[in-house]
Design brief:
The chain has 373 residues and is of the alpha+beta class. It has helices at 3-11, 27-39, 45-54, 56-59, 72-81, 84-98, 152-161, 179-188, 202-215, 290-300, 302-313, 327-345, 352-361, 363-370; strands at residues 106-114, 127-134, 139-146, 169-172, 192-197, 223-231, 234-244, 261-271, 274-284. Strand 8 (261-271) and strand 9 (274-284) form a beta hairpin. It is elongated.
Protein backbone atom coordinates (compact mmCIF):
# COMPACT_ATOMS: atom_id res chain seq x y z
CA UNK A 1 0.00 0.00 0.00
CA UNK A 2 1.48 3.38 -1.02
CA UNK A 3 2.26 6.18 1.43
CA UNK A 4 -0.45 8.38 -0.08
CA UNK A 5 -3.11 5.65 0.17
CA UNK A 6 -2.16 4.99 3.81
CA UNK A 7 -2.53 8.70 4.55
CA UNK A 8 -5.92 8.88 2.81
CA UNK A 9 -7.16 5.88 4.81
CA UNK A 10 -6.07 7.46 8.10
CA UNK A 11 -7.48 10.94 7.55
CA UNK A 12 -10.67 9.39 6.20
CA UNK A 13 -11.50 8.51 9.83
CA UNK A 14 -11.52 12.15 10.97
CA UNK A 15 -14.99 13.39 11.87
CA UNK A 16 -16.30 16.02 9.48
CA UNK A 17 -17.63 18.99 11.52
CA UNK A 18 -19.89 20.20 8.68
CA UNK A 19 -23.59 19.51 8.17
CA UNK A 20 -24.08 16.95 5.41
CA UNK A 21 -26.70 18.94 3.51
CA UNK A 22 -24.44 21.96 3.13
CA UNK A 23 -21.16 20.36 2.02
CA UNK A 24 -20.02 19.77 -1.54
CA UNK A 25 -16.43 18.63 -0.95
CA UNK A 26 -15.15 15.58 0.92
CA UNK A 27 -13.12 16.30 4.04
CA UNK A 28 -10.43 13.86 2.85
CA UNK A 29 -10.09 15.81 -0.42
CA UNK A 30 -9.66 19.10 1.43
CA UNK A 31 -7.01 17.70 3.78
CA UNK A 32 -5.05 15.92 1.02
CA UNK A 33 -4.92 19.03 -1.16
CA UNK A 34 -3.73 21.03 1.85
CA UNK A 35 -0.99 18.52 2.70
CA UNK A 36 0.35 18.43 -0.86
CA UNK A 37 0.16 22.22 -1.10
CA UNK A 38 2.13 22.53 2.16
CA UNK A 39 4.78 20.16 0.81
CA UNK A 40 5.30 22.58 -2.06
CA UNK A 41 5.55 25.62 0.21
CA UNK A 42 1.99 26.97 0.00
CA UNK A 43 0.81 28.70 3.18
CA UNK A 44 -2.39 30.80 2.97
CA UNK A 45 -5.86 29.83 1.76
CA UNK A 46 -5.44 31.54 -1.62
CA UNK A 47 -2.17 29.70 -2.27
CA UNK A 48 -3.69 26.32 -1.32
CA UNK A 49 -6.64 26.97 -3.62
CA UNK A 50 -4.37 28.05 -6.50
CA UNK A 51 -2.18 24.98 -6.04
CA UNK A 52 -5.23 22.71 -6.13
CA UNK A 53 -6.49 24.33 -9.33
CA UNK A 54 -3.11 23.89 -11.04
CA UNK A 55 -2.90 20.19 -10.08
CA UNK A 56 -6.56 19.18 -10.41
CA UNK A 57 -6.05 16.30 -12.84
CA UNK A 58 -3.21 14.84 -10.77
CA UNK A 59 -5.35 14.93 -7.62
CA UNK A 60 -8.13 13.08 -9.44
CA UNK A 61 -5.83 10.04 -9.65
CA UNK A 62 -6.42 9.29 -5.96
CA UNK A 63 -9.27 11.52 -4.67
CA UNK A 64 -12.66 11.91 -6.40
CA UNK A 65 -13.13 15.72 -6.39
CA UNK A 66 -16.82 15.42 -7.37
CA UNK A 67 -17.20 19.22 -7.39
CA UNK A 68 -13.68 20.23 -8.35
CA UNK A 69 -11.26 22.12 -6.09
CA UNK A 70 -12.85 23.74 -3.01
CA UNK A 71 -12.91 27.52 -2.67
CA UNK A 72 -10.47 29.35 -0.41
CA UNK A 73 -13.35 30.02 2.03
CA UNK A 74 -14.14 26.30 2.19
CA UNK A 75 -10.54 25.54 3.15
CA UNK A 76 -10.68 28.28 5.77
CA UNK A 77 -13.99 27.20 7.33
CA UNK A 78 -13.02 23.53 7.48
CA UNK A 79 -9.70 24.17 9.21
CA UNK A 80 -11.37 26.49 11.70
CA UNK A 81 -13.75 23.70 12.73
CA UNK A 82 -11.92 20.36 12.46
CA UNK A 83 -11.00 18.94 15.86
CA UNK A 84 -7.19 19.34 16.23
CA UNK A 85 -6.99 16.32 18.52
CA UNK A 86 -8.39 14.09 15.78
CA UNK A 87 -5.85 15.43 13.30
CA UNK A 88 -3.04 14.86 15.82
CA UNK A 89 -4.24 11.27 16.31
CA UNK A 90 -4.29 10.79 12.54
CA UNK A 91 -0.64 11.91 12.39
CA UNK A 92 0.26 9.36 15.08
CA UNK A 93 -1.64 6.57 13.34
CA UNK A 94 -0.13 7.38 9.94
CA UNK A 95 3.47 7.51 11.18
CA UNK A 96 2.94 4.17 12.95
CA UNK A 97 2.07 2.64 9.56
CA UNK A 98 5.29 4.04 8.04
CA UNK A 99 7.76 3.38 10.78
CA UNK A 100 10.51 0.92 10.28
CA UNK A 101 11.72 -0.70 13.48
CA UNK A 102 12.67 2.09 15.88
CA UNK A 103 14.81 -0.14 18.07
CA UNK A 104 18.02 1.61 19.03
CA UNK A 105 16.97 4.87 17.39
CA UNK A 106 16.80 8.27 19.08
CA UNK A 107 13.46 10.05 19.57
CA UNK A 108 13.79 13.72 20.46
CA UNK A 109 10.89 15.52 22.14
CA UNK A 110 10.80 19.30 22.16
CA UNK A 111 8.43 22.26 22.09
CA UNK A 112 8.01 25.01 19.52
CA UNK A 113 6.07 28.29 19.57
CA UNK A 114 4.39 29.58 16.39
CA UNK A 115 5.41 33.20 16.74
CA UNK A 116 2.82 34.80 14.44
CA UNK A 117 -0.19 32.83 15.68
CA UNK A 118 -1.03 35.30 18.46
CA UNK A 119 -3.91 37.77 18.34
CA UNK A 120 -3.19 40.63 20.73
CA UNK A 121 -6.59 42.29 20.20
CA UNK A 122 -8.37 39.12 21.39
CA UNK A 123 -5.85 38.21 24.08
CA UNK A 124 -4.81 35.01 22.26
CA UNK A 125 -1.25 33.88 23.02
CA UNK A 126 0.97 32.26 20.36
CA UNK A 127 0.28 28.57 19.79
CA UNK A 128 2.79 26.23 21.44
CA UNK A 129 3.23 22.63 20.32
CA UNK A 130 5.29 19.62 21.41
CA UNK A 131 6.60 17.22 18.79
CA UNK A 132 8.34 13.85 18.81
CA UNK A 133 10.98 13.49 16.10
CA UNK A 134 12.80 10.31 15.08
CA UNK A 135 16.31 11.55 14.37
CA UNK A 136 17.47 8.73 12.08
CA UNK A 137 14.21 8.41 10.10
CA UNK A 138 13.69 12.20 9.88
CA UNK A 139 10.03 11.56 10.69
CA UNK A 140 7.64 13.48 12.95
CA UNK A 141 6.12 10.73 15.09
CA UNK A 142 3.50 12.87 16.79
CA UNK A 143 2.46 16.29 18.02
CA UNK A 144 0.21 17.80 20.66
CA UNK A 145 -0.86 21.37 21.39
CA UNK A 146 -0.08 22.94 24.76
CA UNK A 147 -3.18 24.87 25.83
CA UNK A 148 -3.05 28.35 27.31
CA UNK A 149 -3.57 26.95 30.83
CA UNK A 150 -1.24 23.96 30.36
CA UNK A 151 2.52 23.46 30.17
CA UNK A 152 4.98 21.01 28.63
CA UNK A 153 5.37 19.10 31.90
CA UNK A 154 1.75 17.96 31.75
CA UNK A 155 1.58 17.50 27.97
CA UNK A 156 4.75 15.44 27.42
CA UNK A 157 3.24 12.40 29.22
CA UNK A 158 0.15 12.75 27.05
CA UNK A 159 2.28 12.64 23.90
CA UNK A 160 4.40 9.74 25.19
CA UNK A 161 1.25 7.72 25.86
CA UNK A 162 0.51 7.30 22.15
CA UNK A 163 4.05 6.70 20.86
CA UNK A 164 5.59 3.30 20.11
CA UNK A 165 8.99 3.70 21.79
CA UNK A 166 10.15 0.24 22.86
CA UNK A 167 13.96 -0.01 22.91
CA UNK A 168 14.45 3.57 21.72
CA UNK A 169 16.42 6.36 23.42
CA UNK A 170 14.16 9.31 24.33
CA UNK A 171 15.84 12.71 24.71
CA UNK A 172 14.09 15.71 26.29
CA UNK A 173 15.24 19.17 27.34
CA UNK A 174 15.32 20.20 31.00
CA UNK A 175 11.59 20.90 31.28
CA UNK A 176 11.03 17.16 30.74
CA UNK A 177 13.47 16.21 33.50
CA UNK A 178 10.69 15.02 35.80
CA UNK A 179 10.36 11.82 37.85
CA UNK A 180 6.99 10.88 36.38
CA UNK A 181 8.24 11.37 32.80
CA UNK A 182 11.29 9.17 33.47
CA UNK A 183 8.98 6.55 34.96
CA UNK A 184 6.68 6.54 31.93
CA UNK A 185 9.64 6.14 29.55
CA UNK A 186 11.13 3.24 31.53
CA UNK A 187 8.09 1.36 32.82
CA UNK A 188 5.34 2.07 30.28
CA UNK A 189 7.31 2.61 27.08
CA UNK A 190 10.18 0.15 27.78
CA UNK A 191 12.64 2.72 26.44
CA UNK A 192 15.70 4.56 27.77
CA UNK A 193 16.12 8.27 28.42
CA UNK A 194 18.70 11.05 28.30
CA UNK A 195 17.27 14.10 30.10
CA UNK A 196 18.89 17.52 30.33
CA UNK A 197 19.42 18.53 33.95
CA UNK A 198 19.14 22.17 34.98
CA UNK A 199 18.23 24.13 38.09
CA UNK A 200 14.55 23.22 37.88
CA UNK A 201 15.82 20.15 39.81
CA UNK A 202 18.08 22.17 42.15
CA UNK A 203 19.16 19.46 44.62
CA UNK A 204 20.04 16.91 41.97
CA UNK A 205 21.64 19.55 39.73
CA UNK A 206 23.88 20.89 42.50
CA UNK A 207 24.95 17.39 43.55
CA UNK A 208 25.77 16.30 39.99
CA UNK A 209 27.76 19.50 39.36
CA UNK A 210 29.67 18.96 42.64
CA UNK A 211 30.37 15.31 41.68
CA UNK A 212 32.04 16.32 38.42
CA UNK A 213 34.11 18.96 40.20
CA UNK A 214 35.21 16.30 42.67
CA UNK A 215 36.02 13.88 39.81
CA UNK A 216 38.70 16.31 38.58
CA UNK A 217 40.80 15.78 41.72
CA UNK A 218 39.67 12.38 43.03
CA UNK A 219 39.92 8.89 41.63
CA UNK A 220 36.32 8.60 40.41
CA UNK A 221 35.87 6.26 37.41
CA UNK A 222 34.80 8.41 34.47
CA UNK A 223 34.16 7.47 30.85
CA UNK A 224 35.27 10.19 28.45
CA UNK A 225 34.78 10.94 24.77
CA UNK A 226 35.48 13.96 22.60
CA UNK A 227 33.58 15.05 19.48
CA UNK A 228 34.66 17.63 16.90
CA UNK A 229 32.34 19.44 14.45
CA UNK A 230 33.40 21.87 11.74
CA UNK A 231 31.29 23.85 9.31
CA UNK A 232 29.99 27.29 8.31
CA UNK A 233 33.03 29.02 9.82
CA UNK A 234 32.56 27.29 13.15
CA UNK A 235 34.69 24.80 15.09
CA UNK A 236 32.98 23.08 18.00
CA UNK A 237 34.55 20.61 20.42
CA UNK A 238 32.26 18.66 22.74
CA UNK A 239 33.78 16.82 25.70
CA UNK A 240 31.46 14.24 27.25
CA UNK A 241 32.19 12.73 30.67
CA UNK A 242 29.99 10.04 32.28
CA UNK A 243 29.91 8.65 35.82
CA UNK A 244 27.79 5.83 37.26
CA UNK A 245 25.19 7.51 39.46
CA UNK A 246 24.44 5.26 42.42
CA UNK A 247 27.91 4.73 43.93
CA UNK A 248 28.55 8.46 44.14
CA UNK A 249 25.27 10.35 44.56
CA UNK A 250 23.81 10.88 48.02
CA UNK A 251 20.60 12.06 46.35
CA UNK A 252 17.68 9.60 46.41
CA UNK A 253 18.41 8.09 43.01
CA UNK A 254 15.81 5.33 43.55
CA UNK A 255 13.04 7.92 43.17
CA UNK A 256 14.17 8.35 39.54
CA UNK A 257 13.29 5.33 37.41
CA UNK A 258 16.50 3.49 36.43
CA UNK A 259 18.78 6.49 37.00
CA UNK A 260 22.07 4.87 35.97
CA UNK A 261 24.39 7.58 34.69
CA UNK A 262 25.09 11.27 35.13
CA UNK A 263 26.87 13.11 32.32
CA UNK A 264 28.59 16.41 31.70
CA UNK A 265 29.13 17.90 28.27
CA UNK A 266 31.45 20.87 27.82
CA UNK A 267 30.98 22.57 24.45
CA UNK A 268 33.78 24.84 23.24
CA UNK A 269 32.82 26.85 20.17
CA UNK A 270 35.14 28.99 18.06
CA UNK A 271 33.63 31.42 15.52
CA UNK A 272 35.87 33.95 13.76
CA UNK A 273 38.47 33.73 16.50
CA UNK A 274 35.97 34.21 19.34
CA UNK A 275 35.76 31.30 21.79
CA UNK A 276 32.78 30.53 24.01
CA UNK A 277 32.28 27.66 26.45
CA UNK A 278 29.10 26.06 27.80
CA UNK A 279 28.70 23.27 30.37
CA UNK A 280 25.55 21.16 30.59
CA UNK A 281 24.53 18.20 32.73
CA UNK A 282 22.32 15.19 31.98
CA UNK A 283 20.85 12.14 33.68
CA UNK A 284 20.29 8.87 31.84
CA UNK A 285 19.11 5.29 32.17
CA UNK A 286 21.87 4.22 29.78
CA UNK A 287 25.20 2.78 30.98
CA UNK A 288 28.05 5.23 31.56
CA UNK A 289 29.17 5.22 27.93
CA UNK A 290 30.29 8.70 26.87
CA UNK A 291 30.21 7.82 23.17
CA UNK A 292 26.56 6.72 23.27
CA UNK A 293 25.29 9.49 25.53
CA UNK A 294 27.23 12.13 23.61
CA UNK A 295 25.69 10.83 20.39
CA UNK A 296 22.18 11.03 21.88
CA UNK A 297 22.68 14.60 23.09
CA UNK A 298 24.07 15.68 19.72
CA UNK A 299 21.17 14.00 17.94
CA UNK A 300 18.64 15.84 20.11
CA UNK A 301 19.78 19.13 18.60
CA UNK A 302 18.48 17.76 15.28
CA UNK A 303 14.92 18.60 16.28
CA UNK A 304 16.01 22.26 16.46
CA UNK A 305 18.56 22.34 13.63
CA UNK A 306 16.61 20.19 11.18
CA UNK A 307 12.92 20.02 12.03
CA UNK A 308 12.22 23.40 13.65
CA UNK A 309 14.59 25.20 11.30
CA UNK A 310 12.93 23.66 8.24
CA UNK A 311 9.44 24.45 9.51
CA UNK A 312 10.44 28.10 9.97
CA UNK A 313 12.64 28.67 6.93
CA UNK A 314 11.31 26.21 4.33
CA UNK A 315 7.66 25.94 5.40
CA UNK A 316 7.47 29.57 6.69
CA UNK A 317 5.71 28.53 9.90
CA UNK A 318 6.75 31.52 11.99
CA UNK A 319 5.47 34.03 9.44
CA UNK A 320 2.00 32.50 8.93
CA UNK A 321 -0.62 34.79 10.43
CA UNK A 322 -3.66 32.49 10.26
CA UNK A 323 -5.06 32.70 13.79
CA UNK A 324 -8.78 31.99 13.95
CA UNK A 325 -10.28 29.13 15.97
CA UNK A 326 -8.67 25.72 15.31
CA UNK A 327 -6.83 26.78 12.15
CA UNK A 328 -3.35 27.37 13.68
CA UNK A 329 -3.31 23.99 15.46
CA UNK A 330 -4.69 22.09 12.46
CA UNK A 331 -2.29 23.69 9.99
CA UNK A 332 0.62 22.92 12.33
CA UNK A 333 -0.25 19.21 12.04
CA UNK A 334 -0.62 19.51 8.26
CA UNK A 335 2.86 21.07 8.01
CA UNK A 336 4.38 18.26 10.08
CA UNK A 337 2.83 15.63 7.82
CA UNK A 338 4.07 17.59 4.80
CA UNK A 339 7.50 17.97 6.36
CA UNK A 340 7.80 14.20 6.96
CA UNK A 341 6.74 13.46 3.38
CA UNK A 342 9.08 16.07 1.95
CA UNK A 343 12.06 14.82 3.96
CA UNK A 344 11.41 11.25 2.83
CA UNK A 345 11.03 12.18 -0.85
CA UNK A 346 13.59 14.92 -1.46
CA UNK A 347 16.34 13.42 -3.68
CA UNK A 348 19.79 13.05 -2.16
CA UNK A 349 22.11 16.06 -2.52
CA UNK A 350 19.08 18.35 -2.94
CA UNK A 351 17.65 20.65 -0.28
CA UNK A 352 13.96 20.48 0.58
CA UNK A 353 13.60 24.12 -0.47
CA UNK A 354 14.98 23.38 -3.93
CA UNK A 355 12.75 20.30 -4.22
CA UNK A 356 9.74 22.48 -3.37
CA UNK A 357 10.64 24.96 -6.10
CA UNK A 358 11.30 22.25 -8.71
CA UNK A 359 7.99 20.53 -7.88
CA UNK A 360 6.16 23.78 -8.71
CA UNK A 361 8.12 24.61 -11.88
CA UNK A 362 8.65 21.08 -13.20
CA UNK A 363 5.60 18.83 -13.00
CA UNK A 364 7.55 15.79 -14.24
CA UNK A 365 9.89 16.20 -11.28
CA UNK A 366 6.91 16.46 -8.89
CA UNK A 367 5.39 13.25 -10.27
CA UNK A 368 8.65 11.31 -10.15
CA UNK A 369 9.87 12.49 -6.74
CA UNK A 370 8.09 14.95 -4.52
CA UNK A 371 4.43 13.96 -4.93
CA UNK A 372 4.77 10.36 -6.08
CA UNK A 373 2.02 8.06 -4.84
Amino acid sequence: MSTIVKLINVIGNIKDPRINRTKLHNLTDILMISICAAMCGMTGWDEIKAFGDSRKEWFRKFIPLPHGIPSRDTFRRVFERVNPKQLENALLEWTNTLNECLEGKIVAIDGKTLRSSFDKSKGIAPLHTISAWCVENKLVLGQCVVGSKENEITKIPELLKFLELKNTIVTIDAIGCQKNIAKIIIEDKKADYVLALKKNQPDLYNEVAALFRKAETHNIPTDYCEFLDKGHGRIETRRCSCIEAKPWLAHDTDSWAKLTTVAKIVSIREIKGEISECTRYFISSLPANAQEIGRAVRAHWGIENTMHWSLDVVFKEDSIRIRKDNSPANLAVIRRIAFSLAKARTPKKMTTKKAQLKSILDWDFANQHFLKD
